[in-house]
Design brief:
single chain; alpha+beta; Ferritin; 2 domains; two-stranded antiparallel sheet; globular; disordered N terminus
Length: 363
């Protein structure tokens, strides 16, 4: 499709592999040899640690360490602290890749976690550290790994991985709308799809623009790992219903939008977020509240269009997660009120915006 060809190389490099192509990390795993599990992760309630860091690492000889029990350093990137505990059953196996696979100049993040649950054969590569100190992970790897003893075996490729929202907190299976029933759309439904695509693009472009001015892992991760996927999912519906026959939307350059009201909103919000990291993160709160409000409005008029409903449900879940990511990033920055610092219209409770459970073992 023309749309795929028009994506920038940065965005393309962040997409999951197709059924017949591996990402560099997946390729390194498939073609690598002698991967050995170094130990296992399990959740453990440490009295002196925030809940996000309640994780223990247990080596193959049974020695246990508390994650971030000590301040991280060049010699101890994960802040390991030796502890005397009886850990519960392992939840994740951990092994190191061969060399600097991700090309970041160091091997400290070239680690892969493999689920110990045979009913959930998921694996993720460690990507880095978020602003709040939690660890970031890749989207779910498109290889089926199993651990026997301390050896890692590649079983097969799944052929279509999952995608993960910012900080790895919410994993969704990509929605193949071509396999769902085709509906006769109303004018409002068609307008809604075109509007939501422009708005998801706006969110991505705002976050990328502000991240270039005020670098923040939260902005970068949401833009490159989530909003691009949101755009892809909405555009899959636009393609299905032939709403962009001239590829007008697909060929729009960065920071340019089809709808004048979206262009105006982009211009005003980027200006509002430019002065500082705090201002940029506060704009993130505003964008997500706007996105959620518009999604909920359009979800009231779907009339059994299950394919649109499925995509909007996924977008809504992701936007809830993004809101709390910005809220947490602000609090980590010292803004104790988080998103509430922006004003009452952007101050939400967990009842209004449900927090999605960290179901893939992120920590």
């Amino acid at each position: 499709m023309l749309r795929t060809l028009l994506k920038t190389s940065l965005v393309t490099s962040l997409l999951l592999s197709s059924a017949y192509a591996y990402t560099p990390v997946e390729d390194a795993i498939v073609n690598g040899t002698d991967f050995t599990v170094e130990g296992t992760f399990c959740s453990y309630d440490f009295a002196d640690a925030p809940a996000a860091f309640d994780w223990a690492f247990v080596t193959n000889d049974g020695t246990a360490y508390q994650l971030l029990g000590n301040p991280p350093s060049n010699d101890n990137a994960f802040g390991w602290k030796k502890v005397d505990i009886t850990p519960p059953s392992p939840q994740w196996h951990m092994f190191q890749l061969n060399g600097d696979v991700d090309g970041d100049g160091t091997t400290k993040f070239d680690w892969v976690l493999v689920s110990s649950d045979p009913s959930n054969p998921a694996s993720y590569k460690l990507e880095g550290v978020a602003d709040n100190g939690t660890f970031l992970y890749s989207p779910r790897l498109d290889v089926n790994l199993t651990v026997v003893g301390s050896s890692v075996h590649v079983m097969n490729q799944f052929g279509g991985g999952a995608w993960t929202d910012t900080n790895g907190t919410t994993t969704h299976q990509p929605i193949d709308v071509t396999q769902m029933a085709t509906n006769t759309l109303t004018d409002a439904q068609r307008e809604g799809l075109l509007f939501m695509y422009d708005e998801e693009k706006m969110a991505r472009d705002i976050y990328l623009t502000l991240n270039a001015i005020n670098p923040s892992r939260t902005l970068e991760n949401i833009a490159t790992r989530a909003e691009q996927t949101h755009m892809d999912q909405v555009y899959s519906l636009i393609e299905k219903y032939d709403l962009d026959p001239q590829n007008t939307l697909a060929s729009l350059p960065a920071n340019t939008f089809d709808l004048p009201e979206i262009q105006d909103l982009y211009d005003s919000l980027t200006a509002l977020g430019a002065p500082s990291v705090q201002a940029s993160l506060e704009v993130g709160c505003m964008v997500e509240v706007t996105d959620i409000t518009d999604l909920l409005l359009r979800m009231n008029d779907l009339d059994g269009a299950d394919d649109i409903q499925a995509v909007y449900d996924a977008l809504l879940s992701g936007s809830y997660s993004h809101y709390w990511s910005f809220d947490n990033a602000l609090k980590t920055l010292g803004v104790t009120e988080g998103c509430c610092s922006v004003g009452d219209a952007y101050c939400k409770t967990e009842q209004e915006y449900p927090k999605v459970s960290k179901g893939n073992g992120q920590h």
